[in-house]
TrEMBL record:
One GO BP: riboflavin biosynthetic process
UniProt xrefs under InterPro entries: DHFR-like_dom_sf (IPR024072), RibDG_C (IPR002734), Riboflavin_Biosynth_HTPR (IPR050765)
Domain Bacterial bifunctional deaminase-reductase C-terminal: start-end pairs: 8-198
Molecular-function GO terms, alphabetical: 5-amino-6-(5-phosphoribosylamino)uracil reductase activity
Identification of the protein by name: Dihydrofolate reductase
Residue span of region Disordered: 21-43
Top-rank taxon: Bacteria
Pfam families: RibD_C
């Protein structure tokens, strides 16, 4: 029997009240009403405005051997793929590894520049994780969101570690982490406060 050495972690930026996106998400406003211009600038400014201060967390996020994301994180729903579209991520997405996208609609794998290939999984979260683990080998699998997808994996007990990047403002409504998730036992592994974000890592015990 082979022992798996890689772990399954979730990595997500949230507001202080737990939202990963505001209301009214569109193609032009992927994070909806996020309190700024709607492009995710306020939620994710820590990654782009002060990357040197947060380089360790950015590098850790990029170190996964495979990724999982929800359909809406790949791009907004377009019925049954009514026109070809490469998602939010441009021609050279930042993943550079296989990415498994949860969706209800079949689509051929989509290779991109830089080594990223999007694989579209229609048979559930367990299948996506099985495929991601196979692709990752001994490396880690990172579930990058959105919150609805992470909530499904937390509810199913499939997460080893939860990495939160908490920004100091509230949204009040939108897509919320832990929504509908049963009570969890978490062990704090580490935390670090930066200028515009606090990074907290929890081990999921049950």
């Amino acid at each position: 029997m082979t022992t798996r050495t890689g772990q399954v972690n979730c990595n997500i930026t949230i507001s202080a009240d737990g939202y990963s996106a505001g209301l009214n998400q569109t193609e032009e406003r992927p994070f909806g009403d996020d309190g700024s211009d709607g492009t995710g600038g306020k939620l994710h400014a820590w990654m782009f405005d002060s990357p040197e201060e947060n380089q360790a967390e950015i590098d850790q996020m990029a170190a996964a051997a495979a990724f999982i994301m929800g359909r809406n994180m790949f791009g907004p729903v377009r019925g049954e793929w009514d026109r070809p579209w490469n998602g939010w991520w441009g021609d050279n997405p930042p993943f550079h590894t296989p990415v498994f996208v949860l969706t209800h609609h079949e689509r051929d794998p989509q290779p991109m520049d830089g080594g990223t290939t999007f694989h579209f999984v229609t048979d559930g979260i367990e299948s996506a994780l099985e495929q991601a683990r196979a692709a990752a080998g001994d490396g880690d699998v990172t579930i990058v969101g959105g919150a609805t997808t992470i909530n499904q994996y937390l509810t199913a007990g499939l997460v080893d570690e939860l990495r939160l990047h908490i920004v100091p403002f509230t949204l009040g409504a939108g897509t919320r982490l832990f929504e509908g998730v049963p009570p969890l036992n978490l062990e704090q592994v580490k935390s670090r406060a930066a200028t515009s974000v606090t990074h907290v890592t929890y081990r999921v015990l049950s």
